[in-house]
C-alpha cells in the first residue's frame, strides 16, 4: 500500500505544487480555489477508488517520534473565552456536544479520560510541506458519540474552535459519520506523554489520522451533529475549505 501514496502524489502533484503556500491565505485569492477544486475533484475520485472507509492510517513506534512537534496556524487563541479558560488551567473546560443528538452533554477532560484513554503514534502531514510524528493520547470520538446518541438523520460532525482567524471568524472543521466513528479518530488531550501543549491545541483537539493537517481541529469548544453544513460559515465544512481546500483531505 505504500504505492498508494506515491500514486496519489502523482495524481495531485500538479495541484500541490500550485498551492505550496498551503495553509497561507494565498489560497483565498481569486485563482486559488478554482485551481484547487479542479485538481481535487480528481483526488477525491482517486481516493474513493483506493481507500475503503475502514482503511487504517499507518502507526509508528516511539523510535520514530519527531523530536519537536511543531505548531502551525494558531498557536495561542486570543479570544476572551479561551483566555479565561487558560487563566484557570483549563479546569473549567467542558466540551459541549449537541445538535442532532438524543442527549446533549458536556464533558470535562477528566470525563473523557474516564471514558477511555488510548494512544496512537501517527504522522501529521501539512499541505505546507512538513510532517511530524507524534504520540497522541485521547478518547475515541465514537465512544463520545455513543454517550450522546447520534440521531439517524445526522451526517456530519462539526468541530467549532476557540480561535478566530479573523474577528468573528472561528476556525472550524467537519468529518462525516464513518470518519468520526473510525477507530483512529480521537479527541486528543495529550501529546508525547504530556498534556496537550497550547501550541498544539490544548485542552482538546481532533486527530483524524487518515487526513491532512488542516482537518485536525485544535482548541475544540463545541461539537455539533448536523445533516448539512451549508448554514455554517462559508458552507464548505471547514475554515480552509471555505478558501477552496478539499473537504475530504485523504493522505
Ligand atoms: N483551531 C485550529 N485548528 C487548526 C489550525 C488552526 O489554525 N486553528 N491549523 C490547522 C493546520 S493547517 C495544521 S497543519 C494543524 C497544525 O497542528 P499543530 O499546530 O499541532 O502542528 O492544525 C490544524 N488545526
Ligand atoms: Mo496545515
From TrEMBL:
PROSITE patterns: PROKAR_LIPOPROTEIN, TAT. It comes from the Bacteria. SUPFAM superfamilies: Oxidoreductase molybdopterin-binding domain (SSF56524). Residues 91-227 form the Oxidoreductase molybdopterin-binding domain. InterPro entries: OxRdtase_Mopterin-bd_dom (IPR000572), OxRdtase_Mopterin-bd_sf (IPR036374), TAT_signal (IPR006311). Transmembrane segments: none annotated. Pfam families: Oxidored_molyb. This is Oxidoreductase molybdopterin-binding domain-containing protein. It comes from Dyella thiooxydans.
Amino acid at each position: 500500500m505504500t504505492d498508494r501514496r506515491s500514486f496519489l502524489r502523482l495524481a495531485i502533484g500538479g495541484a500541490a505544487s500550485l498551492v505550496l503556500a498551503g495553509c497561507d491565505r494565498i489560497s483565498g485569492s481569486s485563482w486559488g480555489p478554482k485551481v484547487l477544486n479542479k485538481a481535487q475533484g480528481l483526488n477525491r475520485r482517486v481516493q474513493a477508488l483506493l481507500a475503503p472507509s475502514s482503511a487504517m492510517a499507518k502507526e509508528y513506534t516511539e523510535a520514530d517520534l519527531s523530536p519537536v512537534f511543531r505548531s502551525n496556524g494558531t498557536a495561542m487563541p486570543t479570544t476572551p473565552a479561551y483566555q479565561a479558560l487558560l487563566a484557570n488551567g483549563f479546569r473549567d473546560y467542558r466540551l459541549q456536544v449537541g445538535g442532532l443528538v438524543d442527549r446533549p452533554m458536556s464533558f470535562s477532560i477528566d470525563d473523557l479520560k474516564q471514558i477511555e484513554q488510548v494512544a496512537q503514534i501517527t504522522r501529521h502531514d501539512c499541505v505546507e510541506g512538513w510532517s511530524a510524528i507524534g504520540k497522541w493520547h485521547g478518547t475515541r470520538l465514537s465512544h463520545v458519540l455513543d454517550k450522546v446518541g447520534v440521531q439517524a438523520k445526522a451526517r456530519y460532525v462539526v468541530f467549532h474552535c476557540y480561535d478566530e482567524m479573523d474577528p468573528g471568524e472561528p476556525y472550524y472543521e467537519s468529518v462525516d459519520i464513518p470518519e468520526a466513528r473510525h477507530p483512529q479518530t480521537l479527541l486528543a488531550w495529550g501529546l508525547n506523554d504530556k498534556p496537550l501543549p497550547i501550541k498544539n491545541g490544548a485542552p482538546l483537539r481532533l486527530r483524524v489520522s487518515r487526513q491532512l493537517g488542516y482537518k485536525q481541529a485544535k482548541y475544540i469548544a463545541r461539537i455539533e451533529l448536523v445533516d448539512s453544513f451549508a448554514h455554517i460559515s462559508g458552507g464548505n465544512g471547514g475554515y480552509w475549505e471555505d478558501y477552496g481546500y478539499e473537504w475530504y483531505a485523504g493522505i
